[in-house]
Amino acid sequence: MVDKEKNLFIIGDVHGCWHTYSALLGHWEPDTELLIQVGDLVDRGRYSHKCLETSRNLELTHPDGVVFLKGNHELMMIKFLQGKDPRDHWIVNGGRETLLGFAEAVLDILSWRGWLEERGLVWENQHVLVSHAGVSFTENPFDEENRQGVLWNRGTLRDVGKIQVIGHTPQIGGKAAFTESPPSWNVDTGAFRGICLTGIKMDASGVVLEEINIPTDPRDIYEKRVDHLAYALFTK
């Protein structure tokens, strides 16, 4: 069982920016901090496959010390791997880049379906609730298909009696954004847009101890939009 009394190190949307992700992970203190990533490890950047590999390895080596949540991009990827994406919704929303990265590394993308399906939607303790997009005013916030649910919401959050920590909507100022009412932190700082990747450290009661902002490593970003080559490589 995860030790919920550790401090928390919560990382925003990575989107395939592996070099940047690795630099931020260098600030994690496993003995005293629970690592939580809010989802959207994949898509848009060059190295989704390496972000997934790094995360799974951390889960294997620190089984009680890490939590990797599901984001809407993981859900879109799962549907594609299940053959349930007839309109290629994932492909046009960053999946091209992920497919190309797997193809260039000669890796089997289908082998990741199970790990992705196992991702949870929420981590919480008595004071803090972490999810990809936040709990909003909707009847079924934990329905993965609900566009106002915890994978997709971009609207006002509901007061759940805890501090919410979310990603999903990039904060272009390069800093995590705090909203006072209801209390929430957004830690998506647009890594794939060339801004930065952010992690915040909190104690178990939700008091922020430190914010770390790592500028996006240029190696993580495709210079030009990836075309349909990736899809062709997967389907040939």
List keywords for this structure.
236 residues, alpha/beta, Purple Acid Phosphatase, chain A, domain 2, five-stranded mixed beta sheet, 6 helices, 23% helix
Question: Care to describe what's here?
Answer:
The protein has a domain at 7-122 and 192-235: Metallo-dependent phosphatases (Purple Acid Phosphatase, chain A, domain 2), CATH 3.60.21.10. Helix content is 23%, strand content 19%. The chain has six helices and ten strands; from the N terminus they run E-H-E-H-E-H-H-H-E-E-E-E-E-E-E-H. It has a five-stranded mixed sheet with strand order 3-2-1-9-10. Strands 4-5-6-8-7 form a five-stranded mixed sheet, with no helix packed on it. The chain is globular, with a radius of gyration of 17 Å. It comes from Lunatimonas lonarensis. This is Diadenosine tetraphosphatase. One of its GO terms (biological process) is RNA decapping.
What's the short story on this structure?
This protein has a domain at about 5-120 and about 190-235: Purple Acid Phosphatase, chain A, domain 2, CATH 3.60.21.10. It has helices spanning about 20-25, 50-60, 70-80, 95-105, 115, 230-235, and strands at about 5-10, 35, 65-70, 120-125, 130, 165, 175-180, 185, 195-200, 210-215. By secondary structure, the protein is α/β, with parallel strands linked by helices.
What layout of secondary structure does this protein have?
Layout: E1 7-11, H1 18-25, E2 33-37, H2 48-61, E3 66-68, H3 72-81, H4 95-104, H5 113-117, E4 122-124, E5 128-131, E6 163-166, E7 177-179, E8 184-186, E9 196-202, E10 208-215, H6 229-235
Parallel strand pairs: 1-2, 2-3, 5-6, 6-8
Antiparallel strand pairs: 1-9, 4-5, 7-8, 9-10
Helix pairs in contact: 4-6
